[in-house]
Amino acid sequence: MHQFRLTNDCLFQDGSPYRNRAEGQCLRDFLMALLQEFYTGESYRFKVVDDLGLACLATTAVCVYHEKRWHSTVLEKRALVFATHHGSIVTDQEYQNCLDLNRRTSPRVFVQTLPNMAAGQVAACFGIRGEYYVLVQTSPDNATLENTAALTLAYGGADLCLTGWMEYTIEQELTVKMTIRYAHEKDQFVGSLASASIARS
C-alpha cells in the first residue's frame, strides 16, 4: 500500500519525492502532466475542468494507478463519498473575486456547485457507479465523512469507497485529500493514500 502527497511543487510517494514541478511550470500544467502520466481511463476534456476539479482528478489518478484492487473491482462496486466545508459568505465572495479577476472560470456557487461537479468528474472518469455522496460539514476531521464511508461499505453493496475532502479557503488555497477504503474490516485503517494542498499564486 503506497501513500501519496501532492503539493503545488512536488508529488511524494511514501514521503520521498516522486515527481517534481518543473521550474517555471504553472500549477495547471503540473496537474495536467500528472494526469497525462497516470490517468488510464477513456479520453476526457481535462482542459475545460476548473482548478479544484483538476486537482481532484490528478490526485485520484495517482491514487488508483498504484492500487491494483481498484482496477479489479467492478464499476457498480465502487462508491464515492466526498465532503466540503460548510457554506461561508466570505469564502464564496473570495472565490467570486477570483472569477472577476479573469482567473480560471468555475461555477459561481462554490459550496454546493463546484464540489458536486468535481465529484461527478471523478466518478465519470474513474468508473464509479455505486453509492455517491457529497457532504457539507464543518471540518475535514469530522467523523461524518468516515462514518458515511463505513456505512456505504457495510450496507451499500460497495467493495471499495473513494473518500475525499475538498475546500477552497479564504486564504485562496485549494485543498484536496483522498483516501481509499475497502469493505473488509482488515483494510479499514489503510490511512490516507493521497492528498493535495494547492495554493494559488
TrEMBL record:
GO function terms (MF aspect): acyltransferase activity
Matching InterPro entries: Ketoacyl_synth_N, Thiolase-like
Alphabetical list of SUPFAM superfamilies matching this protein: Thiolase-like (SSF53901)
Boundaries of every Beta-ketoacyl synthase-like N-terminal domain copy: 55-174
Coiled coil stretches, renumbered: none
Listed Pfam families: ketoacyl-synt (PF00109)
Protein known as: Beta-ketoacyl synthase, N-terminal domain
Phylogenetic placement of the source organism: Bacteria, Pseudomonadati, Bacteroidota, Saprospiria, Saprospirales
